[in-house]
Amino acid sequence: QVQLVESGGGVVQAGESLKLSCAASRNIFGHNAVGWYRQPPGKQRELVARITSAGTTNYANSVQGRFTISRDNAKNTMYLQMNSLKPEDTAVYYCNYLAWWGQGTLVTVSS
Fold first, then answer.
1. CA-CA distance, 106 to 104, in Å (whole number)?
2. Which tens digits make up the pLDDT trace of 51-71?
3. Would you say 23 and 46 are in contact if contact means Cβ atoms under 8 Å apart?
4. By C-alpha distance, which of 41, 51, 56 is closest to 104?
5. Which end of the chain has a smaller Cβ tally under 10 Å, C or N?
């Protein structure tokens, strides 16, 4: 079992930045990849970024070069730094580890 708790969402204007955090109840970075997903209003959930146990990162084309996923093993926490935000980044953002999901944090980007 693992609990994931996201934080850091909010309302920003286009071009601004936000940093999301996902705190895990135990160390989850040792053997499996973890990731950030998002679900825009009225759309399906989609992968935003993931990081493997070896530290390899992958990004959706739509956020490549603007978002950065990272983790702090000592704090059992992973992050999503989001720069140059666009209105189309508006969504509920979720962190994921295997079958476990956080409750989500809402990011709203106004134009």
1. 7
2. 999 999 999 999 999 999 999
3. no
4. 41
5. N
